[in-house]
Amino acid sequence: xxxxxxxxxxxxxxxxxxxxxxxxxxxxxxxxxxxxxxxxxxxxxxxxxxxxxxxxxxxxxxxxxxxxxxxxxxxxxxxxxxxxxxxxxxxxxxxxxxxxxxxxxxxxxxxxxxxxxxxxxxxxxxxxxxxxxxxxxxxxxxxxxxxxxxxxxxxxxxxxxxxxxxxxxxxxxxxxxxxxxxxxxxxxxxxxxxxxxxxxxxxxxxxxxxxxxxxxxxxxxxxxxxxxxxxxxxxxxxxxxxxxxxxxxxxxxxxxxxxxxxxxxxxxxxxxxxxxxxxxxxxxxxxxxxxxxxxxxxxxxxxxxxxxxxxxxxxxxxxxxxxxxxxxxxxxxxxxxxxxxxxxxxxxxxxxxxxxxxxxxxxxxxxxxxxxxxxxxxxxxxxxxxxxxxxxxxxxxxxxxxxxxxxxxxxxxxxxxxxxxxxxxxxxxxxxxxxxxxxxxxxxxxxxxxxxxxxxxxxxxxxxxxxxxxxxxxxxxxxxxxxxxxxxxxx
Amino acid sequence: xxxxxxxxxxxxxxxxxxxxxxxxxxxxxxxxxxxxxxxxxxxxxxxxxxxxxxxxxxxxxxxxxxxxxxxxxxxxxxxxxxxxxxxxxxxxxxxxxxxxxxxxxxxxxxxxxxxxxxxxxxxxxxxxxxxxxxxxxxxxxxxxxxxxxxxxxxxxxxxxxxxxxxxxxxxxxxxxxxxxxxxxxxxxxxxxxxxxxxxxxxxxxxxxxxxxxxxxxxxxxxxxxxxxxxxxxxxxxxxxxxxxxxxxxxxxxxxxxxxxxxxxxxxxxxxxxxxxxxxxxxxxxxxxxxxxxxxxxxxxxxxxxxxxxxxxxxxxxxxxxxxxxxxxxxxxxxxxxxxxxxxxxxxxxxxxxxxxxxxxxxxxxxxxxxxxxxxxxxxxxxx
Lengths: 491, 383
Known about the structure:
The structure holds 2 protein chains of 2 kinds.
Chain A: H1 2-18, E1 32-37, H2 44-58, E2 61-66, H3 69-81, E3 89-93, H4 97-102, H5 110-114, H6 126-132, E4 134-135, E5 138-139, E6 142-143, E7 150-154, H7 155-161, H8 169-179, E8 192-195, H9 204-216, E9 227-228, E10 233-234, H10 239-250, H11 264-272, E11 276-281, H12 285-288, E12 301-304, E13 311-313, E14 320-322, E15 340-341, E16 346-350, H13 356-370, H14 372-378, H15 391-395, H16 398-402, H17 407-421, E17 427-428, H18 435-451, H19 457-475, H20 477-488
Parallel strand pairs in A: 1-2, 1-3, 8-11, 15-17
Antiparallel strand pairs in A: 3-16, 4-5, 6-16, 7-11, 7-12, 9-10, 13-14
Helix pairs in contact in A: 1-14, 9-10, 9-18, 18-19
Chain B: H1 2-8, H2 19-29, H3 31-58, E1 60-65, E2 68-73, H4 77-84, H5 88-92, H6 99-122, H7 125-147, H8 157-183, H9 190-198, H10 205-215, H11 224-229, H12 241-269, H13 273-281, H14 286-313, H15 318-323, H16 335-344, H17 348-382
Antiparallel strand pairs in B: 1-2
Helix pairs in contact in B: 3-17, 6-7, 7-17, 8-12, 8-14, 12-14, 13-14, 14-17, 16-17
C-alpha cells in the first residue's frame, strides 16, 4: 500500500510538473487488454497498478495474468500460434521477440509509434531502442525495463579488507578470497566472498555469459560471442569460454555452501541480509538495497559496469592473447570490457491477431508504461524490478536521491549503467530462433554438470558445441545466419 | 426358472417375419457392442489418438507459426540424439566400462540368456517374443549400469529414474508394509496412526516439494541445529549427487509410503481370522504365522500394489523440479523432468522422443514385472 501511494503521488507530481497530457478520457471504453507475464509483484505488480490508472484515464481494462517464468514463452507462443488468442499482450524478455516474430505473431508497432507524440523514442538508450525494441529493423516491442548484468561490491567490506574493487575476473577471485569468511553484517557469523545464482534451470546461464563476454567479444556488439556469424559454427569450444567456465567455477570456493542450489531469489535474500561481499546481478540491487529489509547494506552496495579481461580470444588461432589495441580495439589500459545485456530487459509485445480496438488500447498502455513520466518513477523503486533504459532516467541523480538513494550511491549506480550503455563493445544476449534451446537448455545443462563435477570443462564445451550444432541444423543454418545478422545489427 | 430360460431363446421367425423383427433381433444380438461403443470411442479419441499423434512429434522438428504447428520430418534423429548425440551422456551417463564392469556385465548377460534359452521349453512362441524383449531390455540396462555406475562413472537420467523406481519403491514397500502390519495388530491408538500415516498422500506433490525444500534447508531449516551439533554445519545435501538423489527419494517416500500402507492394511485386514487362529491353536509362532499364512495371502495384493507404485514412480517430476531443478548438474533429473525442460524450450520433437523412451522403458519393465512376478504370485495360491 505504501508503494502504491508513493507511486501514485510521484506519477501525479511528475505528470503535473512535466505537463504530460493524459490519454483522452474513455478513449478505449469497453476494451479489455489481457496481459501475460511473470508471477509476483516484480514486473507484474506495476502493470497492475499502472493498469488501474490507465483504466481511469482511458476506460480500457487491464487484466494481468501471471504464470511461472519458464511457462511464459511457451504459453504465449502456443496461444498466439494456435489462434486461441486469449492473450493480447505478452511482457517477456526482449530477446524472445525474434522467435515470435519469425512465426509472424507480433504486431508491427511502427505505425503506432509514428502517431505517438508522448513516447519520446529518442530518449530510449540506443541499445534498448535498436536491439531490444526492434526485430528486423521494425519496432515490435516496447521496453518496460532495461537489463544487463553488473558486478556489485560492498564498499565497507572492501575498505575494511584494504582491497580495491575488481577490474578483471582474476581480481574478482582475488578480492573474494580476501573477504571470504569476514563477518559482513555484524551477526558474528562468517559471510561469503561471492554470491552467484548457480542453480540449474534458473539464471546461471546468464552469469556465465557475463564471464565469457569480455574474453571472447572484442570488436563491438555486432561481432557477438556465441557463433561465427558467417557460418553459425559455435564459437564455444575454445580457450576463451574454457577460461570463463573455470573462473566461474572457481568463484564457488568463496560462495555459500549451497550455491549450486541457489536461484536469484536466494542470492537476493543473502545480499540483502548483508552476507555477500561481491555479487553478479542485474540492475536491481542498486535500488533493492533501499528496501526496509536491507538496512544493513543501504548505500554500501556499489556497482561496477563491467568486469574485464586482460586476455582475449584470438579467433584465428583459438589461443588467448593479451588485450591490445590490435586484438581488442575497445580495450582500455590492456583490459577488454564487454557488459553483457543479459535477458535484454522486459518488454511488451502485442498479438498480431488481436482485434484492432484491443491492439490500439494495448499499444497505448505499453506506451503509457514506457513514457518518461511513468517509467522514470518506476525504475527508481526496487520492488518493481524495472531498471533504467531511458537517457532521461540516467541523466540526473535527482529522482534517485528523491527516491531515497544516497547521493554517492546514485552517482556510482548511474555512472555504472551509463558506462555500460555507452560501451561500443556491449555484448548482446542471443536473439535468434531457438535461443531458449541454445542457452536455457544446452548451455545451462552442461554448465550445471560441469559445476557439479559430473563432467570436465572440455567435455562440457564439446557437448555444448554438438548441441548447438544440432539446434542450428534443426532450424536451418542459412536461416540462422540471417537471423543472427539481424539480431546483431550487422546487416 | 424355466420361464426365464424360454424368454432367452431366439424366437423362430415365422414365414414372412418382418424386417422390423430381424432388425430387432440383430440389435439385440449386438447390444453389448452398442453399449460399449461410446466408451471405446471416447478412449480412442482422448487416450489412443494423442499417443499416436505424438509419434509425429517424436519424428519431427516442430515449429510454431502464425498458422499453427509446422512439422519437418527428421526420422529418428530425436531418438538417436539421446543415444549417440549431444544428449548421450545426459541420458545414459558416462559410459567408460572397466574390467570389473565387463566381468559383471558378462555374468548378467549370460544369466539372462540362459533364462531365455530355458524359456524355449516352457513357453509359446508369443511368450518367447515377450521374453526376448524383456531379455534385451535387461541386457541393455545391465550394460549401461556396468559401464556407468559400476565402473565409477556418473549415471544419466535413465538410471536416476530407475533409482527412484527400483530403490525408492523397494524402501516404500518395506516401510509401508511394516506400518500396515503394525496397524493391523490389536494395539491402542491404531486408528489415530492410520489417519496420521495417510495424510501425506493427500498433499499435492507441489506442496510436498516446497515443504521438503524448507525442511531440508541446512542453513535455515528445522534440522540446522542438529546438523550443527553433529559438526555437519557445512554439509549441503544439494551439492552432492547421491545425497541429493537420496533426499529426493526420502521426500518421495514420505508421500507415497501411505499408499502402500493403506493398500496393504486393507489386504492384511481381509485375511480370515480363522486361519490365523487355527495356526495359533496348532502352536505356530508369530513368525511362522506371518510366513506361512499372512504373507502368502497378501502377496498377490502386495505385488500388484508395487506394480502400480512403480508405474507412478517412473513419472516423478514435481519433487526434483522444485527441490533442486534437476541439480546438482543433472543428478536428480528424471526422464520426465528432462522431457519437460526440453518442452519448455520449444523442442517439442525432442520432448516427445524422451517421453516415448520413457514409455518403452516403463512398459517393458512393468510388463516384465507383471508377467514374471505378479502373475506368478497370483497363480501360486491356485496351484
